[in-house]
Amino acid sequence: MTKSSLFSPPGLRSSAVAALLLALALPAEQVQAQTLRLPGQSRAPGLGVLGLGGTAAAARQQQADFIVAVVNSEPITNNEVRARLLRTQQQMTQQGTAMPPRNELVKLLLERMIVERAQLQLAREQGVQVSDSTVDDAVLNVAKQNQISVDELRRRMTAEGLAFAQFRTDLRNEILLSRFRDRELEPQAKVSEQEIDEYLREQAAGGSNAAPQEINLSQVLVAVPENASPEQVASLQARAQLVAERARSGTDFAALVNEFSNAPGRSADGQMGLRPADRYPQLFVDTTQNVPVGGIAGPVRSGAGFHVLKVLEKKSAGMPGSTVVQTHARHILLRPSAQLSEEAAVARLADYQRRIAAGQADFAALAREHSQDGSAKEGGDLGWASPGQFVPEFEERMNNLAPGQIGAPLVSRFGVHLIQVLERRTTRLSPREQREMVRSLLREKKLEEAYVAWAQEVRGRAYVEYREAPQ
Question: What is the mean pLDDT of residues 450-456?
Fold first, then answer.
């Protein structure tokens, strides 16, 4: 798989109604990366939808389903809501999201399902379709994200009380809705050059609509122990001063972080991340206020010790950064097949990792010989990549590796990877690249606003009747 193949595909776009009605429910763009609860996790209590809780009650519901709402003569059943509730509760548990009161969650989910049902009906009336092969691919992606086979996915879902046929139907509906929304809303999301110019002027002028300042700093912390003697403090201050002088003379700051810093985040080259200035210590903000991007500040003293700071980026919160951190990585890709199971591919790459670490094999040579990817002839080299260039699962693993480090085998939608990060750099974006990022930002904002209005219109035209649970 070449870099272009690993490039993150356009996902099933998240809808603004997910935030409007229930940001807790499964967003459309996460369909391809849906995860299952791990074996052994306890089931959330009270999964009966309308007042029936517990396993026995759930079983009774399955035997005696009933209609809870009708949307343009099409019913939504209690079991459909229950399945959505179970899926949502599992996802919220995995993500560590606070669970709202159960009755409130059910109401929000039902309203979301009503909105979706009205949109699905309109989409089908206008001839939008999704093929079985597209659904098969989506199911396979879900299985790969969970690092299991489709058969194992089916087994686990059945064990959790989720009907696999309903799961496929939900995937089909999510894809269909995404296509329909794109078709309906795309004409309203065009961004003109004049709009980009106006946005850039507003942010630069710092007017009422301008976003607050954001900064990204990297630091070397020379820690000062509690109760340190004056001699120790002076020695550590001299050490910090040496770091600052070497940084100003052009020594790679990441190398200085790895050699001298006592702060967390060394694997990220000391970067503390792009964030609003008020989320940084005021000492750091004051010290770097007049320091340009790429400049060095310090050493400055805090209760923790002496800090040497490098300014990586400064921007308004609504503006694209003038710089971006890029990663240079390489990988070996094995594609599971009838001759090579996924488990065998993981084991083989783990063996490659062990051999490379022991100095018994060369990464590039193994990639040229074994990698089933277009980058094999380059020793697996993927070149320099900016954030968002690779699929999320690959990028997440890559970002967690320090330069020179090889990660454990990773299963992605493309196969099994062995990834090594070679180096990182901060590079400046060209004016054209910054304008394109503004265009994307404004386009997404327009899409969200258009979706809210469109979803409300479709919902308003639908006939909706709520039904009481049978006694």
Answer: 87
Instruction: Verify cis geometry, omega within 30 degrees of 0, for the bond prior to 299.
Output: yes
Report residue 455's pLDDT band, with 50, 70 and 90 as the boundaries: confident
In this structure, are strands 323-334 and 275-276 parallel, antiparallel, or unpaired? Answer: unpaired
Packing angle of the helix pair 150-159, 164-185 (nearest 10 deg): 110
| Number of helices followed by number of strands (H, E) in the chain | 16, 11
Q: Which two tokens stand for residue 28?
A: 């459309």
pLDDT in tens, 223-267: 888 888 888 889 999 999 998 998 888 888 888 888 888 876 555
Output the six-digit token pair for 68.
């809870």
What is the rounded distance in angstroms from the CA atom of residue 369 to the CA atom of residue 294?
A: 41
DSSP string, 36-70: PPPTTPPPPS---SSS--HHHHHHHHHHS--EEEE
3-state secondary structure of 198: helix
Q: Cβ distance 454 to 185 under 8 Å?
A: yes
**Residues 115, 455: contact at Cβ < 8 Å?**
yes
Q: Could you tell me where the beta strands, DSSP code E, fall in 228-280?
A: 275-276
* pTM score of the predicted model: 0.46
How far is the CA of 439 from the CAs of 12, 196, 197, 199, 318, in angstroms?
20, 6, 10, 10, 12
| CA angle (182 as vertex; 180, 187 as ends), nearest 5 | 120
Distance of CA 203 to the CA centre of its chain: 27
Per DSSP, the residues of 270-330 read TB--SEEGGGS-HHHHHHHTTPPTT-EEEEEE-SSEEEEEEEEEEEETTS--SEEEEEEEE
Look up residue 106 and give its DSSP letter: H
* Residue-range domains of the chain with CATH: 3-189+450-466 (1.10.4030.10), 213-316 (3.10.50.40), 323-428 (3.10.50.40)
Which pLDDT band holds residue 60 (cuts at 50, 70, 90)? very low
Query: Nearest 5°: phi and psi at 333?
Result: -115, 130
Distance from C-alpha of 389 to C-alpha of 116, rounded to nearest angstrom: 31
If you compute the radius of gyration of the chain from its CA atoms, what whole number of angstroms results? 27
Rounded to 10 degrees, what is the CA torsion of 439, 445, 448, 451?
-60
The answer to whether the beta carbons of residues 331 and 406 sit under 8 Å apart is no
Measured between alpha carbons, how far is 85 from 134 in angstroms, rounded to an integer?
A: 25
Comparing 426 with 310, the larger pLDDT belongs to: 310
CA separation for the pair 306, 312 (Å, rounded) = 19
Distance CA 316, CA 367 (A): 42
